[in-house]
Protein 1
Amino acid sequence: MDGDTVGDMITITRKMIINDDLGALSQIPEMFGRLAAETIEQDGFDLLKRNRTKMFADANRNRVKTNKKLDSFGLNEAYRLFKEMTDKKGRPINVEPNYLLIPPALITDAWTLLNSVYVNQATDKPTGDRNPWANRFEVVDTPYISATQGKGETAGSDDEWYLLPKPSDVSLFSISYLDGRETPIIEQEQAAFDVLGVQMRIYHDFGINEEDPKGGVFSPGK
């Protein structure tokens, strides 16, 4: 599990308070809340990328090995792998995939593939045969898995993509919070004696846990 107390602090001087004509300082709690949400997202996607080899190992049968590109053939292979997943007793898990998770570089391919009523199966252009994938999955694009993010074991890619179910059905990872508190704690106090002003701090206790490899199918894209 990746878990710890994370936080940040800001000092607001008396001069800043007097000059705050636009009320920008009142937005600090909202800024802190956004920072907390972004921290959870960053840690979650880093954990996903670090665990690609283990979570999508050959033994789990949830890694696309042929037709890896995001097109009608690749999506068909990912869907087949997902639907053929079984529980510990060898029975189908009977869960539907709902989300196509992609880096921004694949957004045009994803929209063309999923929003076109007709598609040429040979070229994936929006003409030809009726498209079996039209409106089939919800596209979720995030820069956290793109080639611009991470290094080494957390390096992203502009080719990789995932087929995922609803987290309520089965999930690759889960988030837990200390004492069940999902919102960060924001506190305010007078600044140190040599500073005229106040200090605000935010801290949040959460952990991200590995759950079930059956919570998704992964394709390296090439």
Protein 2
Amino acid sequence: MRSSGPKKKHKRPAFQRLRLAALMVLLTGSVTALGSTVYKRLVIPAYGNNPAALDFMAKAQPKALSADDLTSFRYDEEAYTQEVANLDWRLSFMFEEGDGHIERAFQAATQSSLGVNNDGLGPIFNSNSCESCHQSNGRTLPVPGQGYLVRLSVPGTDEHGGPKPHPSYGGQFGDLSVSDVPAEGTVIVKYEEIQGKYGDGTPYTLLKPEITFKDLAYGPIGYSTMLSARSPLSLYGLGLLEAIDDETLLAWADPDDEDGDGISGRVNRVWDIEKKQVSIGRFGWKAEQPSLLTQSADAAANDMGVTTALLPSQTCTDAQAGCREALHGDEGSTAELDAESLKEVAAYMQFLAVPARGHLEHPDVQHGEILFKTSGCAACHTPEAETGNHEYKRLRGKKIQAFTDLLLHDMGDGLADNRPSFDANGREWRTPPLWGLGLLETVNGHTRLLHDGRARNFAEAILWHGGEAEGSKEAFRNMPADDRQAIIKFLKSL
């Protein structure tokens, strides 16, 4: 006769329990990630509850709307800091939180401060906040110690096909450090004056930078090391550039110049640290980052020495014992800038409004726009685009005037840094967007342009163009003075 007592539960073998637990963790993570994507795509609406905030759309000239309904009509020193109008409250909250992270000054980790929000600077770094390089979301002057960066690499590539970091100094020269940890050294920039003349005989001078180092703390740099100076880029409008479909970029690309116009733009295919796959790059001077999330993580790690979930390791090299042994703000936690904060930084850049175009009725501006197109500038600085299927509805289907194709172009020997980065060779640079640049002097007090800030104004930036842009540069150089000024006035109106 069978016992009527309680049945004995069957106990799974230990390895099965472990496998089940691991499966549950994976499923939970997958569901969470899927839920976040579905939430962004389906739950968060495109707009908030204040439709009157978008009344400017009906009143403005369509051509003035640089960024569709993500345009701002602020033209003062706060022109680059505006949240887009009528943003859903959830995204507005993320925007405000992201603003706080951008302005946050990180501090060196101490035993008593571990886990505090602004903990974890360095130990070796270039700046202590995003704001210190991107003043008012624009760009600081290209001065060492104020956001002027020098990228380093040695011949070869890393495991993902990107630049191979210097064995002692890493991928970016760190000229600042926390106490008791030696900084890598000091960057010295000297300029060689290059004399030139316009077609009408008017002289001009260009500045060619020469980079050297002093007080090197970790040994010689080495003659084979490749250097590339970088000036900060502005932060506004980046969400719309992120929302341009890959298919659009591929359609614009013409790597073999099949149409015979001398322009052979191509995409940069880079390693995506978030997706763990090769993706199309679109951010940075050589289009080295595929998304604002990865761009933010990369800047946190290399500019400030701040870890994130995407880049959880410090950038200290084997030669930097003090850096490796220093107290880090991520000890006992996952990262110095947590995953939610990183998303908020990205959201802030995604929803920064773009200044509207101005002076549309001015005859010189109108004439300058015609000359800009007829001289071939618009072949790379593509005036118009339409965004695609971004995860946030507000960024989808927008007609924008960013004046970029986000592609790599050969810019000639004059601008070459001779430092490859993924598919970008040492002569190639991504076409930078031109929208909003007319307010750079108003917001940031200067007009320094190009990847290393060598150009002191729009005219010098044009005169440095070469390679695929040689014909456009020569067209500008040989124009009558009034036509040259018309193009400059057009660029200032953007």
